[in-house]
Structures are given as C-alpha cells and as structure tokens.
Design goal:
Blueprint: E1 4-14, H1 19-25, E2 33-37, H2 45-60, H3 69-78, H4 83-90, E3 95-102, H5 105-118, E4 124-126, H6 128-135, E5 148-150, E6 153-160
Antiparallel strand pairs: 1-3, 1-6, 2-3, 4-5
Helix pairs in contact: 2-3, 3-4
Length: 162
C-alpha cells in the first residue's frame, strides 16, 4: 500500500456560526473536508492534524459516522461519537479555528480564500491545558493559560496510508 499525501490547514477566523457549513459544503465534491470549532478545544497542532487525517481516512474507507465530512473531523478532535454533544461543545465563541483537510493543496487554497472573503482571517491561539479542562467541562482561570499562537493560516502535509 502506498502513502497518499493529504494537506491539513488550520485557519483562524471570527466565529462563522452556521454560515460556515454552507461555505464548507461547496468544497465537499472537491474532497475538501472542514469544520469550525473553538480554539479552546484544541490542545495541539498534532491533535488537529491527526483528527483531520483520521476523519479523512475514515470517510475514504466508508467508516465515517456523520453524513457531513466536517462533522467527522469535529468528532475526532473532541473524542466524542455523539454528534449533538460534539456540536454543543464546539461553539459558539468569538473566534474559531477551521480545520480543513484535502489531498489537493489548490482546493485548500480556494477554501482559505472563500473564508477570508466571507469571515476574515486573523490570529488566534490555542491552549493545551484549557483544551483538556474544556473537554472535561471545567473552566480554567485565565492566568493559568499556556497559549500557543496560530498565525492566520498554517498548512501541514501528512503522508498517510490511505
């Protein structure tokens, strides 16, 4: 089995709300899968990349849980199989991190352009300690935060046996 390179983009934007999925749905036929969630729920770049790659692989192999591919990414990030609970945990907030995955880098670029036009792209940060606490339902005092900055857009290549 040969490896297939997929690209994962982390895109920081204002909270897009339900409008985001109308933007994401336009890219599904190009095999770009995306979801938006609070930066507080992401503990690390590795977590986001792994969740995106696993959701992409599950969809290709017919092992997806949700009808919408972006929801599968959300389920992997949060570690939850119940879609309703995952959606409740994911938002809404002031800012969002959009996690997108595709085997075509150009398609990810088009998604980034569409998000920039529709919602704007800005800096945001995520905090591994806050992510664990948020998933456990515990609020963490601000002074204990260990924040890591994601500058606007970050794209990573991952070779996976798909």
């Amino acid at each position: 089995m040969t490896g297939r390179t997929v690209y994962v983009a982390l895109i920081c934007t204002k909270w897009p709300g339900d409008k985001a999925y109308s933007v994401f749905d336009k890219f599904v036929e190009d095999e770009v899968y995306a979801t938006a969630l609070s930066p507080e729920l992401i503990g690390s770049k590795k977590q986001a990349i792994l969740a995106a790659v696993l959701a992409y692989e599950a969809r290709l192999k017919g092992r997806n849980i949700a009808r919408k591919p972006g929801i599968d990414i959300l389920l992997y990030v949060i570690g939850e199989r119940n879609i309703r609970r995952a959606l409740e945990m994911a938002g809404p907030r002031d800012k969002a991190i959009v996690i997108a995955v595709s085997s075509a880098l150009s398609s990810l670029q088009y998604l980034v352009e569409a998000l920039a036009k529709e919602f704007g792209i800005e800096n945001c940060c995520f905090d591994p300690v806050r992510a664990v606490m948020a998933l456990a339902g515990i609020k963490l005092p601000v002074h204990l935060a260990q924040r890591y900055l994601v500058t606007r857009v970050a794209v990573f290549a991952a070779t996976q046996r798909l």
